[in-house]
Amino acid sequence: MSESTLTSADLADGGSTFDVAPSSPTVPAYASTTAPYGSLAPDGGEGALVIAVVPESPADDLGIECGMRVLSVNGKPLTDMIVWLWESDGDDVEIEVFDPRDDTVTPAILERFPGEEWGMEFDGAVFDGMRTCVNACVFCFMNMLPKESRNTLTIRDDDYRLSFLQGNFVTLTNMTDAEVDDAIDKMLSPMNVSLHAITPECRRKLIGRNAPRGIEVLERFLDAGIEIHAQIVLCPGLNDGDELLSTLRYVEAHPGITSLAIVPLGFTKHQKRFATSYSDDVEASRAVVRMLEPFQQRARTTRGATVFQLADEFYIDAELPVPPAETYDGFPQFYDGIGMLRSFLDEADALRRDRAEDLSAAGELLAADGRRALVICGEAAQSTFDAFCAAFVPAGAVSSRAIKNEYFGGNVNVTGLICACDLMAQLPQDLANVTVLIPDVMFNYDSLTLDGVERCSITAELERRGATVRYATPAPSQLLDALLTG
Question: What is the pTM (predicted TM-score) of this model?
Answer without folding.
Answer: 0.87
